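During the second half of the funding period, the structural biology subgroup turned its attention to how the target accommodates small molecules. The most pressing case was aspartic acid, which had performed well in the primary screen but for which no bound structure existed. We therefore specified the complex as follows and requested a full 3D prediction, including the ligand pose.
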Amino acid sequence: MALVVTKYGGSSVATPDHIKKIAQRLVERKHTGDDVVVIVSAMGNSTDELLDLADEITDHPNERELDMLLTTGEQVTIALLAMAIQDLDQKAISFTGLQVGIVTDSAHNKAKILAIDADCVKKALENGHIVIIAGFQGVTSSGEITTLGRGGSDTTAIAIAAAIAADVCDINTDVNGVYTADPNVVEDARKIDTISSEEMLEMAASGAGVLSMRSVEYARNHGVTIHCRNSFTDEPGTIVTGEETDMEQAIVSAVTHDTNDAKITIRGVEDRPGIAATLFGALADENVNVDMVIQNISEEGLTDISFTVPHEDLSRAQAAVVAVKDEIGARTWVLDEDVAKISIIGAGMRTHPGVTSQMFRALADEGINIDLISTSPIRLSCIIALEDAPKAVRVLHKAFELEQE
Ligand code: ASP
Ligand code: MG
């Protein structure tokens, strides 16, 4: 018998039929003797539909009222799911974020969880209920309703799992788990059975969309084991754990790609102290999330600086560059939106220095040009041309023999 938290996203509860199917699965799980807490998102695209409604009213919706609006999406799902479970003669009860005491800071639309009371969850479990909790929402200490940012239901699930010391937190999705590469790109990509949370964090940060960085980070910090699995099958998925395993660590565990970055190059800036500080200070002031940075060696006192930013930050990044370009003495600057970031991730890279050259060699053999490089102790990333991305992923997957167990 285990205490499980299990989370279903919008696509898994998109219709009444979906909800009935999930109810059936939850009841079966309860019958195996497990205590079950389920976190759900709003049905299908209903969060987007609510946003569209607000958009029809105003261009500048009040953030507090937006949270009042968006939290209704999850409230619909929890009530319907409770009814569906009760219809199968199983006790179930639904709670909003406020009712379970998910206390957040007061940053509307992007609140952070500060504390969870969870007393009512424990009581309801003791009384034999399946407990259903609305994802994505919380409440400030002064009683204001908040949301956790898009995709926040994962974070709710992990936070609840931590608060009630659940044995595992299932994140159910429309894929079978975490793969060695995007299966849409690499035919023989393999489902990973177990991966460390530090590797998963690097994967999430470098383009693997299956789990959000924020939820993996929360899980790592609170010692929650994630089971990432398919909503509608019983097949085991991928276990993401912070625990040390005795297994020898794979040198490379996965290849990821991210096509959401753009590259800005500033040409002919003076090579003297303060230039980078001015430029990146301006970017920070615009809240731009800079990823990779490279500065060339200077010729005749002038140098080039390139950096990448996510597309959603691009217009703010351009504004920042325009604002400081004269101050830093830049001659010109160019924008390249057609780039991709290719990364290899593996905890064993720490102790295997040859991996870098192997990656570069594999790309070179296919005539793929590397633009920028960045590293962490367990990740190596290259910026390449967007059009080369699928080929690069396949080449690296093969070079590191990821198709093999
Ligand atoms: N319904 C919210 C969203 O669409 C939260 C979530 O799905 O995790 O962003
Ligand atoms: Mg969603």
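Two results from this model are relevant to the next phase. The longest strand covers residues 261-270. The radius of gyration is 23 Å.
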